[in-house]
Amino acid sequence: MLIRELNRGKCKSYLVACERTRRAALIDPLRDRVDRYLALLAYYRYELVYAIDTHTHADHRTALFELRALTDAKSVMHRVAPAPSVDVHVSDGEVLELGDVALRVLATPGHTPDGMCLHATGYVWTGDTLLIHGTGRSDFAGGDAGAQYDGITQKLFTLPPETIVLPAHDYRGNSTSTIGEERLHNPRLAGKSRAQYIEIMASLGFALPDKIQEVLQPNQTALDDDAIAYPNIARLNEVRQLEPRTVVTLLAGPEPPLLLDVRETPEYDGELGHIGGSRLVPLKELAMRVGELEEWKQRRIIAVCRAGVRSTTAAAILTSLGFEQALNMKGGMLAWNDLGLPVQR
Questions:
Q1: What is the pTM of this model?
Q2: Which of 338, 288, 276 is nearest to 308 (CA)?
């Protein structure tokens, strides 16, 4: 197995390859380093099979969409990742094969809902879940310090102590650690209870990453379009969230709302299907087609997407355009399907 860290900076991307079959994966690639990655793959004569993000990044633009367009690689993220242009959605325990190399998925939400780690014999790529003598922040939307603690202690810390830890970030000049080292000496985790960890994470008070909106929302939507005026965090937080069963009740009521599905067209009739009677207006077309919704300006509109993230953006955009009853279905079509509610394809 060949492993290379490619960025030599605070944000870390990894090449993982089977030396026998020359099949390779890139883990957490950065968009502004795509040329470097392609040159390295050509130098080693490796076939890029997978481009993998361990979570939806808020501090840099992902290269998944560019690599997907430029190569035959499959983009890979956790099942609950919000972005549309993902070829392979994985869940806890699934395995990605690279010849003689097997990457096992460990679902570790907490930093983000779609956080995951990848384990191969002797190594674990921990994304922003577990850092070297630290952990990823849990104060972003959907973050959960308790879930993060559970994932680290119940999954990562059960790996052999000699397992090498390869994180997605390091801010102190470190490159690797081990599970044994982190279990014994990580100051946020060693000897700490779940309640203590939650208290520690709540007290950190980190500033938001620079240009978070310019990074996070394009990563969530796979759109790089100046025509979309992405709402700020304050507006996103103001969007009212409805549970899927509440949506079912409203649809059966005397004044049913408009369900506005803002996914891409292939998603609408894809694996998750769509809710009967919903109207498809992809997010990238929303600003241009808002006139089609004029009759609903004073009525209830519920935005829907895969995981409830793009649709929150859509509801915030509609609110800014005077649609005072623009709401969001929490959890999106993933949550709807998980409840066994009816869909059409």
A1: 0.91
A2: 338
pLDDT category of residue 49 using cuts at 50, 70 and 90: very high
Mean pLDDT of 27-53: 96
| Per-residue model confidence as pLDDT tens digits over 143-175 | 999 999 999 999 999 999 999 999 999 988 888
Contact between 98 and 23 (Cβ < 8 Å): yes
For residue range 194-247, list pLDDT tens digits in order.
999 999 999 998 887 666 667 877 888 877 666 667 788 888 889 999 999 999
Report the greatest alpha carbon distance in the chain: 65
- How many whole angstroms separate alpha carbon 345 and alpha carbon 173? 50
CA 79 to chain centroid: 9
Q: Rounded to 5, what percent of the chain is helix, strand, coil?
A: 30, 25, 45
Q: Beta-strand (E) ranges in 28-169?
A: 47-52, 74-78, 88-90, 95-98, 101-107, 116-120, 123-127, 130-131, 134-135, 164-167
Q: Assess whether pLDDT exceeds 90 at residue 294.
A: yes
- Name the amino acid, one letter, at 179: I
Walk me through the domains of the chain, giving residue ranges and CATH numbers: 2-202 (3.60.15.10), 225-338 (3.40.250.10)
Burial of 299 (0-12, 13-18, 19+ CB in 10 A): middle
Name the nearest CA neighbour of 316 among 141, 152, 175. Answer: 141
The label of the residue with tokens 């950065």 reads 30
Q: What rounded mean pLDDT belongs to the chain?
A: 94
Q: Which two tokens stand for residue 162?
A: 């000699």
The whole-number average pLDDT for the span 113-137 is 97
- Find, among 228, 296, 288, 225, the residue nearest to 260 by Cα: 296
| Whether 23 contacts 17, CB under 8 Å | yes
pLDDT at site 213: 64
Q: Please give the torsion angle defined by the CA atoms of residues 68, 130, 117 and 154, in that order, rounded to the nearest 10 degrees.
A: -160
**Quick one: which H or E segment has residue 142?**
none
For residues 2-26, one letter each, b for 16 or more C-beta atoms within 10 angstroms of the residue's C-beta and e for the rest, the string is ebeebbeeebbbbbbbbeeebbbbb
